[in-house]
Amino acid sequence: MQELEVDVAVIGAGTAGLGAYRAARTHGKRAVIIESGPYGTTCARVGCMPSKLLIAAAEAAHMLEHAAGFGVHAGATRIDGAAVMARVRSERDRFVGFVLEGVDAIPAEDKLRGHARFTSPHTLQIDEHTLVRFQTAVIATGSRPFVPTELHNVGPNVIVNDDVFEWTDLPKSVAVIGTGVIGLELGQALSRLGVRVTMYARGGSVAQLTDPVVRETAMRVLSEEMDIRFQHLPLRATQHGDEIELTMRTTAGDEVTERYQYVLCASGRLPNVDMLGLECTGLELSPRGIPLFDPRTMQCGASHIFIAGDANAERPVLPEASDHGRIAGDNAGRYPDVRPGLRRAPLTIAFTEPNVVALGRSYRELSGEGKPAFAVGQVSFHNQGRSRVMLQNRGLLRVYGEYRTGKFLGAEMIAPRGENLGHLLAWAYQCRLTVKEMLDMPFYHPVIEEGVRTALRDLQANIDKGVPPEPPGPDRTPGI
């Protein structure tokens, strides 16, 4: 077994790992990057980019189907599933190629292939071939799709999102388990491309939404187009030839059995930290087995080990993984001089239509026990001018503000062009603007952003009214 002495060991060559490696190198340190799976990042291979390619094809089909609403009548729409998937795979491979070019630029002596596990706080064993002694380490091992226990070892037609992008043609039917971002994006795209899709949710969650009013609107809007069945739990599944017989149980106890060509498990992802030998590091772990860390520095406790990207499950999206990696790599490279890094405004987007977006502080966070009251403003897009022009007038935006200072606190929405509205509001949040300052900004006409102005005006009016009085409690007068 060969032995290496390095300053920084980075475990994982995804978005966070590559960022950590490069940041550590800027401090003149000897760093290695260790990877057991394929190079190319989750985003490029099986995440952000191939899913958006599928969504783009679905949007084209949807526009043709609804052109008559504008008085434009196209011929019969024909969806060539093989051609759709050929473009998805071809462009996916192109995006992966860009990542591989960056990996190829890393010196060969800095790249180690194999599964890494800690054997002590300062050593890693890579398979059976290499022992790495390090001064600092960055855990950037990413995550993997979660498959419910009831669907384990059923057969080849129970799949995860990674498998979708290897299809050479579109299937006839798919059951999607989960109404998170991944499930909703893929489910709606496949449905618009002519696939019979049924979506199942354990509860009533919709993507990243925590505001009950926005969530209820999203449930209604998305259910108008798709077959979404909330409050359904997977009970069992059996492979029958090229189909899966799936039985779901409702919270009322009823059982529903249907057959699909595929069952797509899209009910979340698990951090890849369970096979790292963390018990040898002395790190304190959360109940989920993730090292406790400081989100400003990515440092695990007061140790020399840092954690970045999906592995820490804080905000499992690519921009956050990139920032995590940079911060962790910087601090690993200049340890023990550990410094807080730039954390940007929280922003998550589901590229459904309408888009589902959350930014800043969530409704759940603001509503936590012991938190001060906050003001809410909202706008429906049903009668919003530009939205009606485009026949995209569905959705709701809710914005939050602080009573005392008038500061903008965050927003949740299901909205047309929500990806653009989300960026606008996330910038305002990061700049710590007040609602009045936001209303002083220019709003052109006619644009969807005018809906943002309507919501902000509603929010400012509610801030001006002040904190509403608490409802009276029960009369506890003796004898009552």
Automatic annotation (TrEMBL):
Residue ranges annotated for the Pyridine nucleotide-disulphide oxidoreductase dimerisation domain, each copy included: 349-455
Residues annotated as domain FAD/NAD(P)-binding: 7-316
Mitochondrion among keywords: no
InterPro entries to which the protein is assigned, alphabetical: FAD/NAD-bd_sf, FAD/NAD-binding_dom, FAD/NAD-linked_Rdtase_dimer_sf, Mn/Fe_SOD_N_sf, Pyr_nuc-diS_OxRdtase, Pyr_nucl-diS_OxRdtase_dimer
Binding site for NAD(+): G178, T179, G180, V181, I182, G183, L184, E185, G268
UniProt KW keywords: FAD, Flavoprotein, NAD, Nucleotide-binding, Oxidoreductase
Gene3D superfamilies listed in its UniProt record: 3.30.390.30, FAD/NAD(P)-binding domain, Fe,Mn superoxide dismutase (SOD) domain
Cofactor(s) annotated in UniProt: FAD
GO molecular function: dihydrolipoyl dehydrogenase (NADH) activity; flavin adenine dinucleotide binding; NAD(P)H dehydrogenase (quinone) activity
Top EC class, one word: oxidoreductase
Residues engaged in binding FAD: K52, T141, G142, S143, D310
Domain of life: Bacteria
Residues the record marks as active site: H445
Cysteines engaged in disulfide bonds, as pairs: C43-C48
Enzyme Commission no: 1.8.1.4
Pfam families listed in its UniProt record: Pyr_redox_2, Pyr_redox_dim
Similarity-based family: Belongs to the class-I pyridine nucleotide-disulfide oxidoreductase family.
Protein name: Dihydrolipoyl dehydrogenase
Protein's organism: Zemynaea arenosa
Upper lineage: Bacteria, Pseudomonadati, Pseudomonadota, Betaproteobacteria, Burkholderiales
